[in-house]
Amino acid sequence: MSAQEKALVLFSGGQDSTACLAYALDRFSHVETLGFDYGQTHKVELECRDALRREISQLHDWGAKLGDDHTLPLPALAEIGGTALIGDGEIKMMENNLPSTFVPGRNLLFLTYGAALAYRRGLGVLVGGMCETDYSGYPDCRRDTLDALEQAINKGMESDMCIDTPLMHIDKAETWALAHELGGDALVEIMLEHSHTCYRGDRDNRHAWGYGCGNCPACELRAAGYEKWKAS
Q1: Residue 168 belongs to domain spanning
Q2: CATH at 142
Q3: What is the per-residue DSSP string for 111-123?
Q4: Could you give the 3-state DSSP secondary structure of residue 101?
Q5: pLDDT digits (tens, 9 = 90+) for 30-50
Q6: Which residues contact residue 23 at a Cβ distance below 8 angstroms, ignoring those fewer than 6 apart?
């Protein structure tokens, strides 16, 4: 099995990364997962990952393809601070037109650490749920950023690693549609019940589209996408 047949999914436990895990299991012969603990307010997402992996492994032949799970701590992001995604700050738009939930360098670090782990594990593809179509405006979610990072990683590691972003040019409604295409009603129900996307870490309120506070940017995007998909 070549490295390009094996993938490492950046797997937070959210809706997008769950769709990416299904995509990878459908596409690659061996798939491992990686989560990060960086002091995020919605740390409950990390607790959702085991149930998601367990449930998704029951679909198709995916259990035979699903390999090890990894979690890496990145406490330095919390020490840098200055974001509503780490701590109790207000979620709002800043003067630089970026939301206060933006964690500078987060995806760059995630992918760099992921590439280092993938290199050691013999995995040739990094799969991430970054999207520039229907998102919160983070500059490190854009494909041109990831193209530059991919080039730097391959130069710095003398490798041929690929950063695969299946959600990059689709909106949240299309993400729900992709999940349904890959795993049918069963996968949609797994995402509704077990994934977590809410920035405030709310697992007390269950909506038609899943758990969350219902009014943070992540919840609003998820809810709107679900409603659009159901109406289509």
Answers
A1: 3-231
A2: 3.40.50.620
A3: HHHHHHHHHHHT-
A4: coil
A5: 999 999 998 776 678 889 999
A6: 127, 166, 178, 182
